[in-house]
Model the fold of this input.
Amino acid sequence: MAKTKASLPQGTRDFSADVVRKRNYIFNTIKNVFELYGFAPLETPAMENLETLMGKYGEEGDKLIFKILNNGLDNISKHEQIKNDFEKILAGKNTTGITERALRYDLTIPFARYVAMNYGQLTFPFKRYQIQPVWRADRPQRGRYREFYQCDADVVGSNSLLNEVELVNIYATVFNKLGIDVEIKINNRKILAALAELCGGNDKMIDITVAIDKLDKIGIEKVKEELQQKGLQENQIASIEQYLNINGTNNEKLNAIKKLFHSVEIGKQGINEIEYVLNYPLSNIHSSLSIDFTLARGLNYYTGIIFEIKAKNVQMGSIGGGGRYNDLTGLFGVPNIPGVGISFGVDRIYDVMEELKLFPEAIAGGAKILFFNLGEEESKLAFTLMQQLRNKNIACEIYPEQTKFDKQFKYADKKQIPYAVIIGSKELAENNCVLKNLQSGEQQTLLHNDLLLQTFH
Done:
């Protein structure tokens, strides 16, 4: 068998025990808050039928979908057909002869598919959360990966803006528990639709939102160039620039946008919805909630309020986002089911917490005690004591081979195990053991029952 150089696909990562434990800390924090707010768990397959995903994320998103080759492409009898199908693929078309499935791009479209398939069995409003990996054929860079986890919470079957209030508070609660100081940005796609109407009609909506969504990355001048290339006139681009330059406090931004869209009905609807969330009583997140009219969220299925979360004091893209999508299940033949959802970007949240040193030391995990192996009879006794400690939920392990003290001490040191239990021939004869604190160097001789009564931190 030929030797292969060990490597990973670009944009993917291995996770060591230390990283997995820290990631689980994030997952568990988010999951516990979801459960606190009455959301139930759901899981869907890693792959979906290609037709389920294509056309749901806009032209830019469709390009980032990982397609899966069909089985049987090595069938000699099909070579001519396969060749013709590949020519279609190279021409930018999809063909079922080559690919019928794809890795999921996000969790929202699979969720909409699930709701459409199970509509008759669900209780509405239906609240679910989902924590699973997704895949995007994106250009890997800091905070952006080709395989990454999303944590979503969605409510379908309700038009109430109280759902948006709840989701904003979920964001605030989670990030408070994680210790991350965030800015929760809010906008409304109806306001963007009003901007499109001001600039020539609804057919301009996608071009405008896709360009605006790139503002942070490419700057205002490049956005204007892109809009010009999409056929917008100078006066229309000037209106968009005026819109993008709105700033100040939340109240100042609202006053400015009301003047801009005073005669555009859909714009006024969007403004009223934002004011509802901002002014809702008992909400304790006003200090971190900020109107951002440049926020577009490039996904085409959003129809109302949209969110994006940015961590303060660190250079990082958004660490969460979402919004309302009033007829997403209509894409699958079940119309008129309103919905709203949010997503947490766990990989970026992890990077933020690492950079700001926010992970608590208590989540280090791993074994608390290493039992030394100093002979066959000694190890049998050690194993018996170890099992008794495990029954008390104290993590411990025994060195598998009988070897030198030095090697076993080094093993404990490298694994950051804080305690060692040593049972040699002397201890075996006297029915006791030596407990050594490997950090302080202190040690004590204990009877077996006294060992079982110890507290290990």
